[in-house]
């Protein structure tokens, strides 16, 4: 309880500082509007990501189509598919190579909890066991609309950090 | 009225400064600085717009809509991207050679800025009219490869090194056809001064007198500035991002911006050497010369984008073979034919 009150007092002090908050707002606006994803896919969900980039769903409308091959340039990691125990350290390394601020979307039931393979001897039960996941998109695989919705939810989360904290 | 807009502004400022009894050197320096600021503004705004235009054009080619949510028709998309990169962490890996690693993104942007020194933007609008303008362009363009080599070597990453090696190979082999295609233009114009070359195209553009030279130049410049059929330096699917792999945040943004500025320079060089520079076609002088220049520049840029979104990336051996076994002999033959033609033309005239 005490920790929470201290935080809110700090936030009040920050709120008085007009310059800081507006600069934060500008950068959050920019971050939310240019989430460059890292080019990689783990399983069939990646096919749906490709479909979302195609002419019918086209996430380039929101400015998200700049796929970056190098993790140093990317902002967003879409964990699209089953994470096997062999793949898990590589996914973690890719995440650690990304520059801050970085976000993670867990797409599909495999990335959320292991999905249909959760009982298997070689499947990691969910991306949140080793990554800080921001948005979960359920489905097996989720449709492109669902991916777009999740992506826009992440944008909302970035642009309104206060709402998320509460 | 529009024709003398910028020249008139400079003249008015000069007379105002002189009437206020400033030292002549102060006046000169001030006006030169103003020209530099103007050119830099032109460069940055165009590079920002070009990134947006490239994404939009690619979307149209692929029957998509392209960025349209940030600002009207997505025009502020690049602004958002730049701001984000501005606030992103600059990641410096442990084993890089710090000096070259940090210097490369700074130097990469000075080269296109230096190139703008000799470009005739409009009637009487040359920042500095060098006698050896063409030679200057060729010389400064090829310095870029040293900067890319710095970035690739100092990153201490195998992909960066491979990309840098490719950039050197590419620059070495495509510099030849570029120079020979330029040489044929210089032979026709009889001068290496860019304003003279533009003036020589007042009646007939060199694209009609030098169609083969134009094609060679168009292709080779595309390769020199690493646009898509020849973007092996960046080659995403093979070597991550080439020399840019280890850069993040603003360092990467500078490389990104420099790439598009170089692209613009390529279009400007094609415009100046082959499409008559700021000369108005059909005597349509009601549009001012600097606007003609920009219109032609964007026409060439659109052609290059069309190429980019149509063709696939070729392999490194195919690319080098194409340069040494096809473009170079053809450009040599082109020079020979141009020389004979000029000689015959003179004989007939006299």
UniProtKB/TrEMBL annotation, chain A:
One Pfam family name from the record?
Answer: Oxidored_q6
Enzyme Commission number(s) of this protein:
7.1.1.-
Per UniProt, where does [4Fe-4S] cluster bind?
44-45, 110, 140
Compartments in which it is found = Cell membrane
* Required co-factors: [4Fe-4S] cluster
The record's remark on the cofactor is:
Binds 1 [4Fe-4S] cluster.
**InterPro entries (UniProt xref):** NADH_UbQ_OxRdtase-like_20kDa, NADH_UQ_OxRdtase_20Kd_su
Q: Which family does it belong to?
A: Belongs to the complex I 20 kDa subunit family.
Question: Per its record, how is this protein called by name?
Answer: NADH-quinone oxidoreductase subunit B
What species was this sequence derived from? Carboxydothermus islandicus
From TrEMBL, chain B:
The topology of this chain with respect to the membrane is: Multi-pass membrane protein
Among the GO biological process terms of this entry, one is: aerobic respiration
Localization, per the record, is: Cell membrane; Membrane
Main subcellular localization, coarse class?
Answer: membrane
According to its UniProt record, the EC number is 7.1.1.-
Keywords for this entry? Cell membrane, Membrane, NAD, Quinone, Translocase, Transmembrane, Transmembrane helix, Ubiquinone
The keyword Transcription is annotated on this UniProt entry: no
Question: Mind telling me which GO cellular component terms the entry cites?
Answer: plasma membrane
**Which enzyme class, named as a word?**
translocase
Write down the chemical reaction(s) this protein catalyses.
a quinone + NADH + 5 H(+)(in) = a quinol + NAD(+) + 4 H(+)(out)
Listed transmembrane segments:
29-53, 101-122, 134-152, 172-192, 204-223, 252-275, 282-306, 326-345
A matching Pfam family? NADHdh
GO MF entries: NADH dehydrogenase activity; oxidoreductase activity, acting on NAD(P)H, quinone or similar compound as acceptor; quinone binding
Q: Which PROSITE patterns match?
A: COMPLEX1_ND1_2
Summarize the protein's role: NDH-1 shuttles electrons from NADH, via FMN and iron-sulfur (Fe-S) centers, to quinones in the respiratory chain. The immediate electron acceptor for the enzyme in this species is believed to be ubiquinone. Couples the redox reaction to proton translocation (for every two electrons transferred, four hydrogen ions are translocated across the cytoplasmic membrane), and thus conserves the redox energy in a proton gradient. This subunit may bind ubiquinone.
Q: How does it assemble?
A: NDH-1 is composed of 14 different subunits. Subunits NuoA, H, J, K, L, M, N constitute the membrane sector of the complex.
- What family does this chain come from, according to its entry? Belongs to the complex I subunit 1 family.
Q: What is this protein called?
A: NADH-quinone oxidoreductase subunit H
Instruction: Give the species this sequence originates from.
Output: Carboxydothermus islandicus
Gene designation per UniProt:
nuoH
